[in-house]
Amino acid sequence: MIGRSEVFEYRSYYKQVIDLDIGTVVKELLPGRITDESGSTIFVDCPHHTSVSHRSLHVWTDKQGWYCHGCGVGGDVLQLVEFIQSGQVTKDQFGKMPESHRNARDWLADKLGLPHLGQLGLNLEEIKKLEQVRALTLRAWECLTETAKFYHQKLLANDKALNWLIEKYAFDKKVTEDFLIGYADNTGLVKHLTDAGFTLRELTASGAFRPDAQIDEIVHPIFEGRIIFPYLSKGRVVFLIARKTPWTPDNQYEAGKYKKLPVHDAKQRPWVAEGIDNGSLFNEDILTSRPNYVIITEGITDCISLICRGFPAISPVTVNIRGNDWERIIPKLRGVKQVILCQDNEISEAGWKGALRSAARLAKEQITCRVAQLPLGREQESARQQLQQHNIHPGIDPKELKAIQELKSLKEWKEIEGWLEAAKIDVCSYFVSGKSAADFQTVIDSALLPVEFAIQSIPEEIKDTERTGLLNDVLSEIGHQPKLEQERLLKVLQKKTGEGLTTLRAGMKEAVEKANFQQRENIRNQVERNLGTPVFQRGIRSFYLVDNAIVEQYVRDSPDGPLVSSQEIANFHIRITEEEINDDGEIHEDSPAAMHKILSGEIISKEWKKPFRIEAQEWGSNARLAARISEQAGAQAMFSTQDTDTVRLVSSVVSGIPKQRVVYPIFGVHPKAGFVSPSLSINQGKIIPTPETGAIVNVGGDYAKAQRLDLVSATENEIKEIIRHLLTDYLDLQPRELTLPILAHTFLGPLLFGLNLVGEFPPYILFLVGSSGQGKTETAKLAQSIWGDFQVKEHLASWGSTPEINRQEAARCRGVLWVIDDFKRQKIGQAQWGNAIRVLLDYADLQARKRATPGSKVITAYPMKCMLLVTGEDIPAAETALLARSLIVNFEGQTPSASCAGFPFRKTTLISRF
Known about the structure:
The protein has 914 residues and is α/β, with parallel strands linked by helices. The model is unreliable at 1-11, 589-594, 701-707, 850-860 and 898-914 (pLDDT under 50).
């Protein structure tokens, strides 16, 4: 079973759901319709159309995909279950998935013992997000599939590229068709894909294209002049890797021999779909069908060479399998009877060293493993003899090779590089040399246990000191094998080294004792390692900070003494330095949290730091915390979601009690703090700079208009001049029957809301009505400027915004004058008219609309506790309840007073200083 903390992104759920063997599924759902089975293909009589052959639905267990030639549809195991159950396949679907998709997903989850997606505690939006990511990923895969088909046709039409591929890898045309190998000739590619119905967004989501930096209508292919090898999985292409050719452009971006498809990166490549990643081994689907054995090769062409000759093979397309890939494929490898490692045989011996590392990991997981070594041909032997003349021998250290290079001329080193390449043999070149599948079968039949391989790898000529060390390592390994194997392996070692069996037995005993002693010493040193005081302990587990990483140490007793295992839980920890309390001054009777809290600090690793910010309620949720860490630190933060609880506990202890900072998310009257603004606070008659109170006023970046509101302390003379200015200039700006009501409305806010008199004197709406050009907006704007700097018309709220946004903006400014400009039915629109009337009625009644959260908890929105002034050409004439709560001032036909001639309409400096 998996928990919510492990499915905060789609990979953790959908990838597990579609990992059920498709052969098992079709045999369970359509047992009576299976008409034939040949190799890895199951032929089925499709239940949704009449078929003459009764075998038109093909299911491939090696590719874990399917296709019905009669219905023209196919896909992965999830789509197969949906097809069988409902007759349809969900494709090109965005938003909420249909019921048929969800039913199929739940059926697979039941088979795997997973909870249904709807049972993980996710809300509807989170589930919708997972489904949207799945939908975009499917579309991206379809785009990659069509791109691979296009490139394949380009390869078949390009004789030079095709012949180069055949000559280099001995792939015939059938191999290119089976594996959809192509050539990156991009002529006509974008048009082909758009004609096929793909959008430019879907092209970039595939990763095979990048958007133009300046023009949205242009995308650029990632590959050019390379051989394209698609990763086929579950009936489609999920990834691409491209091999350099003589026709690849010669520039710094194309220098590498192989070039992989770019993957999703939230910062560097956000346009790539989240499902495009390099998290699959080539041909990994074959493990789902549990073959008797599987061969792991180093290169993709090696893997293809084996598959097309009937050998089950996978490839990480590198020397070593990555740590994260091991975690995923080890459970699948446990279903395979034997794993055979067959790496490149090269002078550096990097291949077999990588094989031994892989073998050690498999042995640790108790998975049977053997190592196969490709035999050298005449060409390789000759090249190695040439290299020995330059003191380049098998297993040479890279530093030694670099030192030799520095002593050679450019011409000499070019010649050496040619011999180094000639001295290497891999699976593909093995077959190119003329070897057959039967020859390779002999190679894997003679594959050795890792310890046998280590014996065979002991060089014939080696220094005595190095020989002793190698023998001790091999003897120690033999001593840890089962008793029956020890004698056989000692005889193999005797044949290799010429040492007597008695000497080797004594050496094995000594080597084992020495190894056991060293192990005990290592354990003792590990126990005594000065990690400092544990951050906290849970039973026999202790948690430490080591180079800012969280390390878990697990201690248990054994007959040989204490056994200690350590593992890094996360390569970082979080240090919370500040607790930001958003105190709105309201009492939320229907919410358990009276104040909104935000935690901020840093995500700290050994090499980097990232700012961190999270809501206090999200800090307590494993899923939310894990998602927030990934959002703010990206791929640099390495941890497992199942350890999120430990990350939080360690980080909480390390952080201690953070500094508290009070934030007032409003401008105006606060029930406890008085009248507050970003610069000044007025409380009990005292004017105090807000920073000196230890708090800040932040009305939020989402409220650009309210954010400009502020107060500046004025001198006594300035106040007298402002009062004179208001009583003369402003009052005479328009006839006083217009300006007096506005000025009264402007200063009522602090009295009604500051002294809490709204119960006795409910606020009213002041409507300034008149046609365009009568001065309504300018007069209202200057009045509002008393509470802040509103210098241009765009700083006023407008009915061009939705009524709910206007409500939210007004709720941020308490006890002040708030103007909403341009009220007219045509501008508001029929759809929003009712909402606008409700907002105005709620204001007059001091109410706010309630909303329900996904957890069935009701939260009340903030009411508008300010003096509301509305300008416009219309009034809500039919709304009698609203008119009863309004004062209407008619600007129609009025002319400004002659005494205000020359008065600046656009702003008044003195008022903006108040």
